[in-house]
Amino acid sequence: MRILILGGGGLGSVLAAYLARAGTDVTLFVKPAQAAALTADGPAPGVATLHVSGLATFSTPVRVTADPAAVGTPDFLIVCVKARDTEAALAPLQGLAVGAVLSLQNGVQKNEVLARFFGRERVLGAITGMGGRLLAPGRVEHFLTAPTLVGELDGGPSPRGERLAAALAAAGLPAACVPDIVRREWHKLAIFLRTAPVCALTGTDIPGALLDPDLLEVCMRVAKEVAAVAAAEGQPLDDMPVWLMPSVTFGSPEAAVRAALGEIAAGLRAQGVPLYPSLAQDTFAGRPTELEATAGDVVHRAARHGIDVPVLATLYRLLRIREPGRQAEG
Q: Is the pTM of this model over 0.70?
């Protein structure tokens, strides 16, 4: 099995390192400047040594390239760049003879982008709970591990998805192939958008947003709005867990949902480490965010379905003003 990982940030680097350590034929595709920096002190031409810390500590050689002609014909292309960078990052690989392609980004819009580049028949849906943080060139912290799920966009069995999930599991990364991956993508998006815009606008972290009565009310309404759009897209979330408590679902009574979120938030707060969504971190740092690919995409889909999403739409427009370059556009 040959795997090409697009993007050498925290997530892509962790994924590449684990797969390489397990003996998988993996290549990291990055921009020329990053390829030069990673391979400058590598053990061989075109090879970098990735140093992983955090949940595991190890070093391993990984092939790195910025040359599309050097990637061959991979069985899988895994996209790990930020959503805002997807099309530019994929441009050098357009026409690549690849068996299947998937993105570990948030949202559902990503599948449509991949289909435009490679054809829908090559696209697998995917989500991950894995987290990595790039510390320096060649050095990455693996700070979060949770299952990576893959599957066919049309549902049903997926031999190629099973192969990829088995490879990830063999590398020490929990993974599974599921028959309802698109619904899982909507589920993760609803959980993400429940707190991410609120945190980005208010400066509070996830437990802070869920423990404050006023902010919790906003978060609850956003989640309901996203779930309504998901249902209109044929992906109902009523029986999906609100987050970490499988017994409390999106369709549970509101009081039960509030109680569950409060209990989860209290547990997170007790850990003593602030927990901010990626959207909030990028907003605070003045970086471009994944706002359009997540909140913006849901707002636009809602409009097509004739569904009102007033709270999410307001949060989206307030955050859109803060996107770098937005003020210059007028």
A: yes
